[in-house]
Amino acid sequence: xxxxxxxxxxxxxxxxxxxxxxxxxxxxxxxxxxxxxxxxxxxxxxxxxxxxxxxxxxxxxxxxxxxxxxxxxxxxxxxxxxxxxxxxxxxxxxxxxxxxxxxxxxxxxxxxxxxxxxxxxxxxxxxxxxxxxxxxxxxxxxxxxxxxxxxxxxxxxxxxxxxxxxxxxxxxxxxxxxxxxxxxxxxx
Length: 188
Fold this sequence. Notes:
The protein is α+β, with helices and mostly antiparallel strands.
């Protein structure tokens, strides 16, 4: 288990003279994770705000890190780099004044790299709903619906349904769009 309290190595820092696009998106790897992990903002799970690694640390006081990592193993791509972690979110002026679980020890996962953050996050929600049905929740405001663009994700997870058909539907739609738009591409 990684006990995270310090500052990360900034080897993937965009450039020292380039301001980050957001105070909680300090580098390229964070931006890549954000594609899917931004959906955590609509849940009771910490997305790592209040640490120096937002959208790279995810967790909650109620999570058993090893149990979660084991349950997520079928959804981990061979190129994904994930480990267990404990962290304590703190108020960081200009970045996160009131993070979820402020000053509480959270347990969860440290995300170094995800090959497909969106698919992985869908399976994470499905897994958390299965492991912690009384503790993992979407926020009462249904902010997740705004983040996702509809209520389909929330309703699928709350019903206990498999998210795989949603993922396969995107892949089919993407393939159809690519074929339809091919005649408009300037380059092959």
